[in-house]
Each structure stands twice: as structure tokens, then as C-alpha cells.
Design the sequence.
């Protein structure tokens, strides 16, 4: 059963995103003085004294959006209120009562949801005495709060808990895995996430840069809960125009680090560019399992076969050549569920632990044949022993006679052979080299843990 939701509504720039961050106890929504930063519904799990609920941040009602997305923003606000159990109506205590506040108040009356009126930005004691005009909105005396200074948080949460409908408010199960959707602008990330969620969860537009925040969307697949993270489309840092884009870029990087698996979206109608290459390098650098999702395949399949396009990606993105490729048409829902099955398979691979005996048998077989040269110096590199230290990513500690002489060519060779011979064919493997000292201790530790 889904948790009850509480939607935050108000005109632009009254502090709705700051309020969400305060209630969640962490920075989730981008907070900027620029009106209209939030467009999609940003959702966060909150609790108070063991009662759990979800709070939803929405875009500003009546926003004059610079990209003419005002209709879509208000549609998302409507979805949020329609699905909500309660509404937090936020006004700006500093600015006072404005005509747009009245419009929001009139609109909410038709939604038939319990509403708590919050006067935000009450940052000084005398501000609380200047709230009389807000009584005219018809929602009783406003609760003075300061999201910036975390003032009023307890009162808000107590009101929420007191007005929640009867139902399941226990802590929800953790998602099976978190999946980050990343890619450059207009690759189709939001379209894909809506296809996964089965609803218009985020705004889709031909205008590049529509998504700004990282948006967490819970969905189910084969009866299991997943978390998809939609991110802002990336472009060259030299072309990042303002602070909003700067924060969006870093939120996308954070989303990759948070994720168990990354869906790296590529536009089939465009050549892989510098931003794609940099993104691929970052995914590899973070050792994240990755599915290369080639979107808009219906527009490109007459120009290349899947095999030809896959070979092209291997050449242009060699650092993640091990990643499987999925060809989808997200706006038609074609092959979308296969992507989740692939992601689940990668997560399973990355979570696998290989017995020490099996690993050393594979290492013996690898080293028994010809191997690339080591760095300059006397003798060759010998692998004395290996053990798996961690999963997600699979981390193998290799004890060698001289760790300083492991060359990049030798490491590439080892990774290729290990992928062929171990159950890590399509995920990144981290290799850690140790010198001769410590081999005996490693063997004894493995024996004590029953791995051999």
C-alpha cells in the first residue's frame, strides 16, 4: 500500500523547496532565488515519531516560465494535489498577500483536501505580527515558519500526523535497487522514466534542459520496488549558463554515485559527443554497472543495424565497452521493460561473491599463458594469490611479487580475461594490487572465513 502524500503548493519563490528540504532533513530540491527553478514533482520520504509519509515539492503556481512550460508545470501541480492526502499552502511573509496567493487559495478550495496555511520567511520576531492579511485567504491564521532556520518544523509535522487518513504509515521497504538515468540534453530520460512509472511523472518537452533537479521516482516491476532517479541533461561545462545548471550538473554526478546501476541514455539520431564521452568516463571512474540505452531507435534503425551501432559504441566509449546495449523507443514504450531486466541482471552480477579457491584457479589459468609485458625492470609480474574483498563493485585483491610493475596493458589484459572466466562479464571490476608481504595473512583469513 502506498504511503500518504503531502503536497507543497504556492506561487513561485515562496520557499517551497526550502520547506521540503527542512521536512526531509537534507538538501533534496535545488534552492535558488530565481523563480521557477522547480518544475517537476520532487518527492521525499519523511517521518514523525514513527509515522511515515511522503512530501511532494511542486513548481510555482502561475509561473511565467522562460521556456513556456507553465502549462506543464501547473499540470504537475494538479497531479500532486489530486494524489495528495494533505496540502501545505505556502505564502511569503516578507512579500505579504499578493493577487497570485488569492488565485492559489481559490484553486485549492476546489480540490477538497485539508490545507495548512504556512507563512514562510518569518526570520525575525516582528515579522510574525504582520500576517493578518493572510487571514483573508480563508484558511485560518497562518502558521509562521522559517524553512531557512528550521523554525516551525515540529508544528507542521504534528499537524500532518494528526490529519493523515487511516492507513499504512509504516516505514516502506527499501527499493530493490536504485537506477540513475543520465545523458546529455534531450536524450529522452524523462520520457523513459514516465514509461517506467506508467504515468506522467516528470515533464517531457522538446526544449532541452527541461529537467533541473534529480527526481526520485518509485515504481514496481514484477512485483518488486525500484527507485529511478531522473537527472538533468548534461552539456559542456563551458556552456553552463547559471547556478541552476551548475547545481543540476553536480546533482547528476551525485545521482551516479547514489545509484546501483546507471542507465546511460544516448540519442540514436546524434553522434556520440564530448559530453557523452566524459559521462562514460565518470561512470567507469565510479565503477558503476551501466546499460547503454540507445533511445529513438525508430528514427535511426534504417541507417544502421544494432550490431553496427554496438560496434560503434565499443570504439567511441572503450572505457565501458563491457556494458550491454539496449535499443529502445521510449515515447512508444518499446523495449523499456527489457532495460529493467538488464539492469537487474547487472546488479546481480555486481553483487556476486566468488569463492577464493575458484578465483585462484582462474588466476592460475590466466597467468599460465602468454601475458603482456610489465613495466621496465628485471623479471616479470607474478600473481601469488587473490581474494575478493567486496561486491558492488566486485573488488579483487591480487598479491603480486612487485605491485609497482603492473602496467596498464597488463591490467587491461587481466580485466578482459577475468570477465571471460568469472561471473562479472558486463560489470566493472576493481583490481587492487598488494606486494608480496601479507600473502600468508590473506590466506589464513580466507581459510578462517571458510572461503576455501
Sequence:
Amino acid at each position: 500500500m502506498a504511503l500518504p502524500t503531502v503536497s507543497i503548493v504556492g506561487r513561485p519563490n515562496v520557499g517551497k523547496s526550502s520547506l521540503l528540504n527542512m521536512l526531509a532533513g537534507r538538501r533534496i530540491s535545488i534552492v535558488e532565488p530565481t523563480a521557477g527553478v522547480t518544475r517537476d514533482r520532487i518527492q521525499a520520504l519523511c517521518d514523525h515519531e514513527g509515522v511515515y509519509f511522503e512530501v511532494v515539492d511542486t513548481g510555482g503556481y502561475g509561473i511565467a516560465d522562460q521556456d513556456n512550460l507553465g502549462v506543464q508545470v501547473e499540470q504537475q501541480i494538479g497531479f500532486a494535489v489530486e494524489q495528495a492526502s494533505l496540502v501545505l499552502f505556502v505564502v511569503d511573509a516578507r512579500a505579504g498577500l499578493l493577487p497570485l496567493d488569492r488565485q492559489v487559495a481559490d484553486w485549492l478550495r476546489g480540490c477538497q483536501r485539508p490545507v495548512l496555511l504556512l507563512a514562510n520567511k518569518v526570520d525575525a520576531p516582528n515579522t510574525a505580527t504582520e500576517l493578518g492579511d493572510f487571514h483573508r485567504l480563508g484558511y485560518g491564521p497562518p502558521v509562521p515558519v522559517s524553512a531557512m532556520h528550521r523554525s516551525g518544523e515540529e508544528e507542521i509535522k504534528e499537524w500532518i500526523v494528526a490529519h493523515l487518513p487511516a492507513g499504512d504509515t509504516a516505514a516502506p521497504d527499501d527499493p530493490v535497487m536504485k537506477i540513475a538515468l543520465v545523458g546529455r540534453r534531450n536524450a529522452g530520460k524523462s520520457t523513459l522514466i514516465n514509461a517506467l512509472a506508467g504515468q506522467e511523472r516528470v515533464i517531457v518537452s522538446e526544449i532541452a534542459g527541461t529537467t533541473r533537479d534529480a527526481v526520485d521516482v518509485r515504481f514496481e516491476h514484477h512485483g518488486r520496488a525500484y527507485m529511478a532517479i531522473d537527472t538533468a541533461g548534461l552539456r559542456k561545462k563551458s556552456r553552463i549558463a547559471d547556478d541552476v545548471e551548475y547545481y543540476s550538473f553536480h546533482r547528476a554526478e551525485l545521482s551516479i554515485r547514489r545509484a546501483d546501476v546507471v542507465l546511460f541514455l544516448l540519442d540514436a539520431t546524434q553522434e556520440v559527443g564530448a559530453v557523452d564521452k566524459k559521462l562514460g568516463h565518470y561512470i567507469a571512474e565510479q565503477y558503476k554497472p551501466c546499460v547503454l540505452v540507445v533511445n529513438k531507435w525508430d528514427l535511426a534503425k534504417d541507417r544502421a543495424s544494432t550490431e553496427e551501432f554496438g560496434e560503434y559504441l565499443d570504439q567511441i566509449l572503450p572505457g565501458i565497452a563491457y556494458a550491454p546495449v539496449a535499443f529502445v523507443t521510449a515515447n512508444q514504450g518499446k523495449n523499456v521493460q527489457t532495460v529493467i531486466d538488464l539492469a537487474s541482471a547487472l546488479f546481480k552480477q555486481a553483487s556476486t561473491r566468488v569463492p577464493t579457491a575458484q578465483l585462484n584457479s582462474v588466476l592460475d589459468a590466466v597467468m599460465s599463458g602468454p601475458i603482456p609485458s610489465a613495466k621496465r625492470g628485471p623479471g616479470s609480474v607474478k600473481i601469488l594469490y587473490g581474494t575478493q574483498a567486496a561486491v558492488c563493485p566486485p573488488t579483487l585483491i591480487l598479491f603480486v611479487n612487485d605491485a609497482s610493475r603492473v602496467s596498464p596493458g597488463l591490467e587491461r589484459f587481466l580485466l578482459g580475461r577475468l570477465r571471460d572466466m568469472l561471473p562479472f562479464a558486463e560489470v566493472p571490476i576493481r583490481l587492487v594490487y598488494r606486494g608480496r608481504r601479507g600473502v600468508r595473512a590473506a590466506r589464513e583469513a580466507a581459510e578462517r572465513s571458510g572461503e576455501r
Summary: Confidence is low (pLDDT under 50) at residues 31-37, 202-212, 239-245. The first strand starts at residue 5 and ends at 9. Residues 186 and 206 are 7 Å apart (CA to CA).
